[in-house]
Specification:
The chain has about 600 residues and is of the alpha+beta class. It has twelve helices and 23 strands. A hairpin with a 5-residue loop joins strand 17 and strand 18. The chain is elongated. InterPro entries: NFACT_RNA-bd, RQC_Subunit_NEMF, RqcH_bacterial.
Length: about 600
């Protein structure tokens, strides 16, 4: 989601309220395409962050500090020369363009008052920060654009600054009904595209929001709307425009669970099924949204590496298990060899010398069977050979039975780690999963040298980071805890929970342990249902419509000796079917 003209209008409104009449006290350039202006107004100090980064252009107020280079870049030095102690006179947005013009007053070398403009263009890969004089002649820019880069508009010292062309787009602040009809409602394309391709500053999100507010369908082409529908859409647009002109902004972030999806300066009715966090500042929205997005992206990238390790380990283990099952099946004939040996010992006196087989009555089944013989061996030697085959297959069966059970447990363990990875939301969650993978040999443990050690000196492992379980409060006020990984599951069930607390888990599929703290009070049905929904949601079955949940008092849950983390047994329990959802559940602070 990029900044559109509406959000820029909100940013301008906020900056005007806080920065106009303030003085620039410090200018820094932490990155080649970033600026931070420190502005003092009265007793308040504000930091204005400006980025012309091609992939993430931004402007907002922040409290964070950034590391600056040892030597300031040339553009930064130029701004310091002209703008130190300069006064901000005004901050404007031309139309609904994604452009902000900061009008600044300063004293030149002769002590005369001069006007300069700092212009921020928030336009994706064309973003820039441009410094101009009072006649809009470019003094310099953070990115210089020559005619070799763009034949349409040069951005170089000495050139006159021109607002980038937006084609035939109309200005939403002045567009009339007739212009709205001719520019939008005549186009043979989806309605949302017709809107954002015809009006300056409109993003696909705001076009979708306008259509949703008008209760129209985006499927038909724009030119398929009736006159009444077109008029209704324009009237809805006018209400939105009126809120914009009167600066009735409601900065907010839309979340899907804990992942930020969109942000806006207006309420987004098109996302009414998702949760919304409102903020009192658009700067706070931008800083929070992009920080959260970066965190989610980073977690996804790191979890991708772990997922690859788990997937590879799972493939190897499944192949190993399939081979063991195949070998185990080959041992099914062991009892047949034992019976052959016994029958040869019983009826061997009837076998003629050199016979290649003989028939005997199987006294276990009452059927007559044919037993193959080695004609070079005596009956006793044939019986011994069959008993040897039986004993070898019996030993193989016993060994493979144990090994296959261990391999199956390994598969279930890896499956549980993969499920934990699916619900990981922070780096400390990934750290715990890495620790588990290293402990069981799926990853190599990294070591660091102890301070002062040389060569093969002592080493220590990196410090383990412990994450906290999810914590919810039921509608009836009971505290519910959800383990994020196998270590937490063990901790919750066997150290945190008491005997009278309730324990929930998905039936026969990997998932988190859910503990409901009772405090000695009986739990109402609604809390049971909510805890079951938590267990379903934080499990491998979260994509299903319904999931079967086992639940019991914690005192009935046991951990077998030598079992892997998170694995338990229980023989007394109740069951219910729950929908995997956390909608409406209160997250504890």
């Amino acid at each position: 989601m990029a900044l559109d003209g509406f959000v820029v209008a909100n940013v301008v409104s906020e900056l005007r309220d806080k920065l106009v009449e303030g003085r620039i006290s410090k200018i820094s350039q932490p990155e080649k395409d970033e600026l931070v202006l420190t502005i003092k107004r009265g007793k308040e100090n504000y930091k204005l962050y400006l980025s012309a980064n091609a992939s993430l252009p931004l402007i907002y107020l922040t409290e964070e500090s950034k590391q600056n280079p040892m030597v300031a870049p040339g553009f930064c030095m130029l701004l310091r020369k002209h703008l130190n102690s300069a006064r901000i006179l005004d901050i404007i947005q031309p139309g609904l363009e994604r452009i902000i013009r900061i009008k600044i007053e300063h004293l030149n070398e002769m002590g005369d008052l001069c006007i300069k403009y700092l212009i921020i263009e928030i336009m994706g890969k064309h973003s820039n920060i441009i410094f101009c004089d009072e006649n809009d002649v470019i003094v310099d820019s953070i990115k210089r654009i020559s005619h070799m880069v763009s034949s349409i508009r040069e951005v170089l010292p000495g050139r006159t600054y021109l607002i980038p062309q937006t084609g035939e787009k109309a200005d939403p602040l002045t567009v009339t009904l007739e212009e709205f009809r001719s520019n939008i409602l005549t186009k043979p394309m989806p309605l949302d595209k017709a809107i954002y391709s015809a009006l300056t500053g409109f993003s696909p999100l705001m076009a979708t929001e306008l259509i949703h507010r008008a209760s129209l369908d985006n499927s038909p082409a724009a030119n398929a709307l009736s006159d009444e529908e077109g008029l209704h859409l324009f009237r809805t647009f006018e209400y939105m425009r009126e809120d914009l002109i009167q600066a009735k902004f409601t900065p907010n972030i839309v979340y899907n669970e804990k992942e930020p999806v969109e942000f806006s300066c207006f309420p987004l009715s098109c996302y009414q099924d998702l949760s919304v966090n409102q903020e009192d500042s658009i700067s706070k929205v931008l800083e929070t949204f992009y920080a959260s997005k970066n965190t989610v992206s980073r977690i996804r990238q790191k979890s991708t590496d772990l997922r690859k390790i788990i997937t590879n380990a799972m493939e190897r283990t499944v192949k190993k298990y399939d081979l063991q099952l195949k070998q185990l099946k080959d041992t099914d004939k062991r009892d047949k060899y034992r019976v052959y040996g016994e029958l040869i010992n019983t009826y061997g006196y009837q076998v003629e010398p050199g016979a290649k087989s003989f028939q005997a009555l199987n006294y276990y089944t009452g059927e007559e069977i044919t037993i193959p013989l080695d004609d070079t061996l005596t009956p006793a030697e044939n019986a011994k050979r069959y008993f040897e085959k039986y004993n070898k297959l019996k030993r193989t069966y016993e060994a493979l039975t144990k090994l296959s059970e261990e391999t199956k447990a390994d598969i279930e363990h890896l499956d549980s780690i993969k499920t934990s990875l699916d619900i990981a939301l922070a780096e400390e969650d990934l750290t715990a999963l890495k620790e588990e993978l290293m402990e069981f040999g799926y990853m190599k443990r990294k070591f660091t040298k102890l301070p002062g050690s040389k060569g093969g000196g002592k080493v220590k492992a990196a410090k383990k980071v412990n994450s906290k379980p999810f914590h919810y409060i039921s509608s009836d006020g009971f505290h519910m805890y959800v383990g994020k990984n196998n270590y937490q599951n063990d901790e919750l069930t066997f150290k945190f929970a008491t005997g009278g607390d309730w324990w929930f888990h998905t039936k026969k599929i990997p998932g988190s342990h859910v503990i409901v703290k009772t405090g000695g009070s009986p739990i109402p049905d609604r809390t049971f249902e909510e805890a079951a929904s938590l267990a379903a949601y934080y499990s491998k079955g979260r994509e299903n419509d319904k999931v079967e949940i086992d639940y019991t008092e914690k005192k009935n849950v046991k951990k077998p000796g030598g079992a892997k983390p998170g694995f338990v047994v229980y023989y007394t329990n109740y069951s219910m079917v729950a929908a995997p959802t956390i909608d409406g559940l209160k997250i504890a602070d």
